[in-house]
Amino acid sequence: MGASGHLAEDLVPILSRLPRDIALIALIADPTGEVEVLLQDFTLLNPADHKMMPFLPSDAQNIANEELRTRFRHLDLRRQPLTNNLRRRSRVAQAMRFLEVETPVLLKSTPEGAREFLVPTRLVQQNDNGEKVPQFYSLAQSPQQPKQLLICSGAVDKYFQIARCFRDEDGRKDRQPEFTQVDMEMAFVSWGDKSVAIDAADGWRIGGQEVRRTVEVLLRRVWTTLEDESADLTLRFPVMTYAEAMDRFGSDKPDTRFGLEISNMTPLLPKDARDNVLSERDIIECIVVRGADKAFTEASKAYQAERLGAVEAIRVTEDNLTSWLHNSAILQTMPISIPESTESSFLNEKLRINSGDCVWLSRRKATAEGGATALGKVRLHIAQLAEELGTYTPPSKPHFLWVTEFPLFTRADDDKDFLAKGRWSSTHHPFTAPMWQDVEKLHNGDFASIRGQHYDLVLNGVEIGGGSVRIHDPNMQEHIFTDVLQLTETEKASFNHLLHALRCGAPPHGGIALGFDRIMAMLCGTDTIRDVIAFPKTGAGTDAFFKSPSTVNDDVLAQYGIKTI
């Protein structure tokens, strides 16, 4: 309540003038308008009814809970941090633009990714029995097929779009059922074969260098737009293969801001133990938390009380310095035993283990699968606990990383199993090209070891983008549909338009999609993308403000040939 009896939420137009010593150039340099003015007059145009105000957005000391703020999002948006986030979002979007083409949002349902949102129409079609069957659109999961077809058409050689995308996924802090991505595609990208020079010196052994360079320039421009001089982005972002990321960090999106790297200790084990592990195609790996590392020691101790069952933590002391290996529960589960006389000195020397250290152990398959290993999860939990305890503060400088050479095919996970039905599934999507070194494996059935020309961009341990070099050979694309993914003729028919375009002289092409909401959340220093979206959904996928989704009465459903059962 102000001195005049007005609420801070009242709408009060003011008449003012600039002091004479404020130059016009100052306003141009500071377009936010944050300059002091001389008040001449004001009018109470539309007073806020304080009885109707569930909370005061202007009260920064008493912020309402998230559930209440979500229900009254129009008031929540008055808070300065959210207002600033939306303005920053607009500035970043402007900095990213080049040749922009809009693609359809209403598309046909295809078995290529996550669950889709279906949109009923009043259109009907007769089936073979003469029955009227309702027709449905699918909201675009991404502009993947339209943008590829756009490049195949030859109308443009590069494309960009701030695209709205829709996926029927479970809600999480970094996911929304509708989201925004910076989508791009370009023709005549390199294919990473022997005839083209590749950036092998820095680990980029696939095609798509043109996409890489474009994204790196774009993100440097974004940070420059925000005048974040402390970022000091490198000219080229570092590169790491999927296999290396899983081996060293236990994650396909490594957070490289801190150490705690994973070591494969299998070669250092006694011969009998080593042979047993290798015969099962397993490895034993470890993380050593140094006792002298004050940032993570206390967090490691705290986490031991709630550790996962797949890992083991051994605290090394003067008493067990030469015997901790023999006492390992993971090694004791083997059919062979580690002799009590076996000393740990060799391991201690190679891994630089000393009294006061904590050794985290895990056994896993030698070929990593999925997005994280057991020790990879431990590593992140320790860092998170250390941050909560105040012993570790992540560096402010952004740590970008390209992760490449993902497996091209995997057995379907829970999200895609309803589509794949136990068959092989594309790790990224079925249009990703294999590395040229692995093309022969497509024909001899060695699908598990084929690497794709797929690249993810990671920032501070968060995946902010993913893309690939596409298949432009129609025969290879059809072979993958038919012989690898084993799509039915009905499922393959969903891609006939793409196969036809590839047979009409399509150029090599590739692209990427950057998660705009995730990038903005990180730029704005928030843990949830809901803080950078004007009207977000809740974690459950509902909208507490607009009260959606909602039920529809039977009369309306009947217009679309739908009835409830």
Automatic annotation (TrEMBL):
<dbReference type="InterPro" id="IPR004364">
    <property type="entry name" value="Aa-tRNA-synt_II"/>
</dbReference>
<dbReference type="GO" id="GO:0005739">
    <property type="term" value="C:mitochondrion"/>
</dbReference>
<dbReference type="Pfam" id="PF00152">
    <property type="entry name" value="tRNA-synt_2"/>
</dbReference>
<protein>
    <recommendedName>
        <fullName>Aminoacyl-transfer RNA synthetases class-II family profile domain-containing protein</fullName>
    </recommendedName>
</protein>
<keyword id="KW-0547">Nucleotide-binding</keyword>
<dbReference type="InterPro" id="IPR002312">
    <property type="entry name" value="Asp/Asn-tRNA-synth_IIb"/>
</dbReference>
<feature type="domain" description="Aminoacyl-transfer RNA synthetases class-II family profile">
    <location>
        <begin position="91"/>
        <end position="536"/>
    </location>
</feature>
<dbReference type="InterPro" id="IPR004524">
    <property type="entry name" value="Asp-tRNA-ligase_1"/>
</dbReference>
<dbReference type="InterPro" id="IPR045864">
    <property type="entry name" value="aa-tRNA-synth_II/BPL/LPL"/>
</dbReference>
<dbReference type="InterPro" id="IPR004115">
    <property type="entry name" value="GAD-like_sf"/>
</dbReference>
<keyword id="KW-0436">Ligase</keyword>
<dbReference type="GO" id="GO:0005524">
    <property type="term" value="F:ATP binding"/>
</dbReference>
<dbReference type="GO" id="GO:0004815">
    <property type="term" value="F:aspartate-tRNA ligase activity"/>
</dbReference>
<keyword id="KW-0030">Aminoacyl-tRNA synthetase</keyword>
<keyword id="KW-0067">ATP-binding</keyword>
<dbReference type="InterPro" id="IPR006195">
    <property type="entry name" value="aa-tRNA-synth_II"/>
</dbReference>
<dbReference type="GO" id="GO:0006422">
    <property type="term" value="P:aspartyl-tRNA aminoacylation"/>
</dbReference>
<keyword id="KW-0648">Protein biosynthesis</keyword>
<comment type="similarity">
    <text>Belongs to the class-II aminoacyl-tRNA synthetase family. Type 1 subfamily.</text>
</comment>
